[in-house]
Predict the 3D structure of the following.
Amino acid sequence: MAITLEDLIRIARGEDEADLVLKNARVVNVFSGDIHVTNVAIASTRIAGLGDYRGKVEIDLDGAYVCPGFIDGHVHIESSMLRVPEFARAVLPHGTTSVVIDPHEIANVLGFDGIRYMLESSKRNPFSVYVMVPSCVPATDMETSGARILPSDLALLLKENWVQGVGEMMNYPGVLFREPSVMAKVRAAAGKRIDGHAPGLSGRDLMAYIAAGVGSDHECTRVEEAKEKLRMGMYIMIREGSTARNLRDLLPLVTPATARRCMFVTDDRHPLELLEEGHLDSIIRTAIASGLDPIIAIQMATLNPAEYFGLLDRGGIRPGWRADLVVFDNFMDFRILKVLRGGQIVAERGRFVGSLSPHNPAIVRSSMNVHPPSISFAVPARGNRIRVIGLVPGQIVTQQLIMEPKTDGEFVVSDTERDVLKIAVVERHQATGNVGLGFVHGFGLKRGALASSVAHDSHNIILVGTSDDDM
């Protein structure tokens, strides 16, 4: 139940008891950059004050640290392959109390219905979900996607509660060459945040991209690239996901002078990593172990994203702000002991102890439409050179390799000895039978085949195999 402003002031002045007091806490102050031992008084969902307070319930933290709840500033929940409530149950024990999602992936499959599904399933959950409306659906016209989001759709969605702006503007060529539909989407943002996605963009093209209103980037892989973008006023989202891991490469960017323009994000983190490594807590832990000042590390997962996205009631431990709090043991182990969201304990010692809403959003249509008899993986042998995609471990950028093909006389086939395998993309939205074929080096598969319908960004079926039959 929401507290009245009068009651909050009354409790802050010590005239009435707080609902909960966390006693003997070492408060990590992301405003002043220091740590002080005090008590934290909570009234309903809000922080009433710090200091000597009485509470209806008092918990002695015995010197444990307390910091603000973590905020993931860029994540595609659907890439975790979990529904929103299950994702909440997975990340809350790791201290994440708010997320800013970009439902770009589900939108490329289900369009407006997919975005509506994510908005509805984000309601009444034990953590806060804010939304950036996908800007690039489809992400490219060079691949068939399941839907198309028009500027008029985007303008309508931007009026929704909890929508903070426009999601990653992947089509930066469309910005640079002033494509009318892209310009309409930029204008629709109307003063709200526009997130960026511009790997390698530099010089005057970068200037033009930023001039259009793009405020952040999470695709930097090198310090030099990130520094150029930061100098031009961008916020740098340092990503550490399941596939793209840029934390260690970009940490040298973070100094006391630059830290307030940087934040940690996960982008895509799969269930295995959520279970074995954690969420933002694992990024903070790694950053501290790598030498980053602990308070700066916590600031980058709390106050910085809150300020960038205009979340004006969270990100620090301050009277009147939401009581989204993380209690942890020390900076070396960084074990999460308790998590409070809106003044309620929702996780303790790695276990979710809150409640999930029984609310179920509308069912969406089937999204897998394939006609197998029309599919062929044959690549005719022509010439003595082929282009091969070269994988870069831990990155989503690739290399172009030129190699000699292995053939059976008539067709080019996979070569497991040199780790040159056939790769295919099968259209799955409209059952056209369209297939894209190529070769990839660095996958390491020795027999059989692997396939996935999680295939950024149009999410057709992508498969790699050692033979056409296995594929």
